[in-house]
């Protein structure tokens, strides 16, 4: 019997599907690897986030795809995820249940591997620098409403303080830490006015032969600060097993970044970046804790209480 995914695939390609495999690890969308005389990625998008904002996300994608094809972007190997169109010419397909789907060609590559040490960290920084250089070629980038507050500490703090259900079981240690540090975190500000990825963790990079060649999950491309991307990237590869910042790794990340984007950020900015990495961790911890308390389910859990555990690690270990 034809599966749901196979029915959706028929709207994009007319080839027999030989394998459907769900890929785990994403927080928001359901992602499937499709094999059908080639490999593809099929995604069921989160309706609560995407409904009503597909045009904005499509506009940003087309701007990014165009920038990836500019001469300066092609000096080294770089891939842009290639969204596919349905038979009716649309990137997105809505099924009879109202679910929104998207399909793109699978990009061969490797994930970030911490076992490669500082070499992969340098290449991650270089890849992020290259991405920022490419994004400079994008015109009229919009701020998709579903992701407009990704790094907005005031937005998430308000959500946190507005939680007042009588049966809510709070974690005293986290409440105390948030109240103690919120003003300090709010006071850390950085320059804005750039186009950024918005979620530039190393899990959204792909590598070939040790070189960063692609960013995936580009729906979060938006106006912002390069510090947001640098902090996301550093948080995902420069924090040790105790939750402390490894400054040696950070220096390698910044060296790669400088080489990838023609000295866009100076090494003298390192101390500000370190403060902003702490703020980045604080905001993410606040989001995990708020999601745990509200039961909203924005972040998928592999076990009950995982979001609370992540919040504890982010909010109670300081750099």
CATH class of the domain at 114-316: Alpha Beta
Q: Any idea what the CATH architecture of the domain at 114-316 is?
A: Alpha-Beta Complex
Order of helices and strands: HEEEHHEEHHHEEEEHHHH
- What's the quaternary structure here? single chain
Largest sheet properties? 5 strands, antiparallel
The stretches of 5 or more residues where confidence is low (pLDDT under 50) are none
Structural class: alpha+beta
Which bin fits the share of residues in helices? 40-55%
Quote the distance from N terminus to C terminus: 54 Å
- Kindly report the name of the CATH homologous superfamily of the domain at 114-316: Aminoglycoside phosphotransferase (APH), C-terminal lobe
Can you count the beta strands?
A: 9
CA-atom Rg in angstroms: 20 Å
Could you tell me the strand content as a percent range? Answer: 5-15%
- For this structure, the CATH topology of the domain at 114-316 is Aminoglycoside 3'-phosphotransferase, Chain: A, domain 2
Summarize model confidence as the mean pLDDT: 91
What is the count of helical runs?
10
Strand order of the largest sheet: 1-2-3-5-4
Task: Assign an overall shape.
Answer: globular
Question: What does this 3D model show about the protein?
Answer:
It is a single chain. By secondary structure, the protein is α+β, with helices and mostly antiparallel strands. The protein has a domain at 114-316: Aminoglycoside 3'-phosphotransferase, Chain: A, domain 2 (Alpha-Beta Complex), CATH 3.90.1200. The chain has 10 helices and 9 strands. Strands 1-2-3-5-4 form a 5-stranded antiparallel β-sheet. α5 (153-161) packs parallel to α9 (270-294) and α9 packs antiparallel against α10. The longest helix has 25 residues, at 270-294. The N and C termini lie far apart (54 Å).
